[in-house]
Amino acid sequence: MRLEAIKRSRQIYTASNLKRGQIGRALLQPDAERAPCGLRWGAGFTLLEILIAIAILALVVSSLYGAYSGTLETTEMVESARDVDQAARLALMQMVDDFSSLYYRKAEGENENSPFRFQGGMDGESERGTVVEFASTAHLGFDGSFPNLRINRVSYVLEKQADNQRYYRLVRMELPFVDLSGEREETAVELADTVESLTLTYLNEDGETLSQWDSKAEETEGLLPRLVHIRLQLAGEKSRVFATTVAIQVQEEEGSRQ
């Protein structure tokens, strides 16, 4: 009996100490016992920490978006400049080819509508203006007899854009008129569609620069310019000017050169 009493007193003492320890911890950490799932509230994030994290994330995203947007703009500018360069290069190459293959034949009593007449710097209409026209052996078609000396009437025309009145379309017109039977069909090829201006100047034998030239005019009758300077201005991200100069070497009917 005495032994059982001693054991019971020890159990009561141990239970009392455990209860006092739990009460002490509850007093020191009053919110710990009320935390869900046994988690302590001190292990989470405060509202201030969440707001700071959101602000940092927004700053990083805005920086990345700015860099990405700048890259897209740079890419678009490079592509636009490349397209403008390509259009200008193709247009100037075609004009140089036509002028280099210029054909002229002077005949007695030749009328103003002669296909061999060289005429440049003409005043065009409000929506369609011919810049220059002449005879040339250059052409865009390919056939079984290529290369050949088929002569064509070549014209370069500026046309107003239908949807954008600021710019012109540069169109090359080609009309075959020698060694062909039947009806003749004029072909048109667009060389550029954002042309701001196309200016041709002509250099005569005395070194004088002229803005117009006509092989039927009194001062230049039967003559052709020695040099033709071409200035082409195209629009892109910004206006750009391309220029070249062509030396005129006239091809005559017998195939000789002047």
Structure description:
By secondary structure, the chain is an alpha+beta fold. It has a domain at 81-247. Helix content is 31%, strand content 26%. The protein contains two helices and ten strands, in the order ααββββββββββ. It has helices spanning 2-28, 47-100; strands at residues 102-103, 119-120, 128-136, 152-160, 168-176, 187-203, 209-210, 213-214, 227-234, 240-247. Strands 1, 2, 3, 4, 5, 6, 7, 8, 9 and 10 form a ten-stranded antiparallel beta sheet that branches. A hairpin with a 7-residue loop joins strand 4 (152-160) and strand 5 (168-176). The longest helix has 54 residues, at 47-100. The chain is rod-shaped, with a radius of gyration of 43 Å.
Keywords:
single chain; 258 residues; alpha+beta; ten-stranded antiparallel β-sheet; 10 strands
Q: In terms of topology, how is this protein built?
A:
Blueprint: H1 2-28, H2 47-100, E1 102-103, E2 119-120, E3 128-136, E4 152-160, E5 168-176, E6 187-203, E7 209-210, E8 213-214, E9 227-234, E10 240-247
Antiparallel strand pairs: 1-3, 2-3, 2-8, 3-4, 4-5, 5-6, 6-7, 6-9, 9-10
